[in-house]
Every structure is written in C-alpha cells, then in structure tokens.
Design a protein that fits this description.
The complex is a heterodimer of chains A (129) and B (121).
Chain A (H helix, E strand, L loop, with lengths): L3 H4 L16 H32 L1 H11 L2 H28 L6 H25 L1
Helix pairs in contact in A: 2-3, 2-4, 4-5
Chain B lengths: L6 H6 L7 H29 L3 H9 L3 H29 L3 H25 L1
The chains are: A mainly alpha (129), B mainly alpha (121).
C-alpha cells in the first residue's frame, strides 16, 4: 500500500511567507491581485449607478447622492488609486511579456515608477473630476 | 518525463488542461483594450457623477461616444475580472468541491453580469 507520505514526500517550504521579508517586486505582485479583486467591488458600484439610472430619477438621486457623498467619494478615490495602480502595473506586465525589463534592477526601478505614478495620476484624477 | 505526470493525468492522458494559452491571450487582449477604454470611462463617469440624471443621460445615453464607451468597456471589464478571479481561485482554493463550485459560479456569474450590463447601460 502506498502511504500519503510516499506519494507526496514532505518537501521543504520555501520561501516561508511568515518569515521571509517580501522584496518590493513581490509586494507589488500581491498588490496587483488585491487591487484587481477590489476593482471588482468598484465595478459593482458602477453597475449599481447604471441600474439606478435605468430605474427612476428618484432612485438615481439616492444612489448618485451616496456615491458623491464624502464617504462615497473616499471609497471611489481608493478605487481610482486601485485602478491606476492596476493599470500601470498591468502595463509593466505587458512590457515584461515582450521580454524586456525583467532583470532585477529594471524590475525594481519600474516598481518605484508604478508607485509614484499611481499616486500622481490619482491626484490628477481627483483634481480633474 | 512520466515522473512528473500524476496518476490522474496518466489515466486521462491529457497532460495539461490545454487551455492556458487561450486564457493568457484573453487576459492580455482585454488588458490592452482596457488600457485605452479604462481611463476614458473613468473620466466620463467622474464627470457624470453627482451632476444629476440629465447630465448622466447626456454623458452615457445621448452621446454616441459615451454610450459606445460604456457599452464596450463594461463587458470587457467583466470578462477581464472573470479571467483574473479564475486564477485567484485556482491558486488559493484547494478543496476540490469548493474549488469547482467557485470556478463554475465565477463563469456563470460573469456571463450573467455581462448580459445584465448590456441590458442596463
């Protein structure tokens, strides 16, 4: 009989996430996923707004009011940052797909560029909108 | 080479699931489309938000450009999200029944949401 130990021998786990300090590039990688999932929530808010627009002017006024209130504005501002981060880091991935910029130093530099530009574009969006 | 093939894969004789390339291309193409459509949509949405129903209708219904942007962006976003959530589920959910259930719900929910978005916009 084959024991589970023989079928799947215990292998060392590496890197151990609770001990290993993630490099900046790894932090951006997980943030890309987190912002992607969070933007799914933002999408639902947008669809809620369009739904209200299709239902009635009164319901639209309610939803539009919630989304443009201070609280709604903060949520949307977070969503805007998540969008720009995901947008810029997504472009970074598309560049990597062409085989460029994948060396450690280049990846580190583009990581800082993504962080800086995402904050800058969020500020610009907030000022324009 | 056979060392790397699991028992189950040997029975099925399939090797990989053979859909990775398709998923990869769909993710990149929707990403490229959204790199253009996303910022435009956000700008239109930000302008229409909080400006009353007439402004909202003017932006997304009575303007061919605005209507086109919303009509194309929302389904592409939903499909891009579907592809991403699929990978997240595949990576983190290991219990077989829950995993399959979530993957099926992700696909069905996304297709449903695309129809909904097209109807509502």
């Amino acid at each position: 009989m084959v024991t589970s130990e023989e079928r799947e021998p215990r292998r060392p786990l590496s890197p151990h996430l609770q001990i290993y300090r993630l490099p900046l590039t790894a932090k951006l990688s997980i943030t890309h996923r987190l912002t992607g999932v969070a933007l799914g929530g933002g999408l639902l808010l947008v669809l809620w707004w369009f739904t209200a627009l299709a239902i009635s002017p009164r319901y639209f006024a309610l939803v539009d009011g919630i989304l443009s209130s201070t609280f709604g504005g903060l949520v949307l501002l977070a969503a805007v940052w998540a969008f720009w981060f995901h947008f810029l880091n997504g472009l970074r991935h598309l560049v990597w797909d062409t085989g460029r910029g994948i060396e450690n130093r280049a990846a580190e530099r583009s990581a800082w560029a993504v962080i800086a530009l995402s904050l800058l574009l969020t500020l610009v969006t907030a000022l324009v909108a | 080479m056979p060392r790397f093939v699991t028992d189950r894969k040997k029975v099925h004789g399939l090797g990989s699931a053979r859909s990775g390339t398709s998923h990869w291309w769909q993710q990149r193409l929707t990403a490229l489309a959204l790199a253009v459509l996303g910022p435009i949509f956000i700008l239109l949405f930000a302008r229409a938000l909080g400006a009353g129903p007439d402004a909202a209708l003017a932006t997304f219904r009575h303007s061919a450009f605005g209507a086109f942007v919303a009509f194309v962006t929302l389904p592409v976003v939903i499909w891009h999200l579907k592809l991403g959530l699929q990978v997240v589920i595949e990576d983190y959910v290991h219990a077989p029944v829950l995993r399959t259930t979530l993957l099926v719900l992700n696909t069905l929910g996304s297709v449903g949401l695309i129809f909904y978005a097209i109807l509502i916009v």
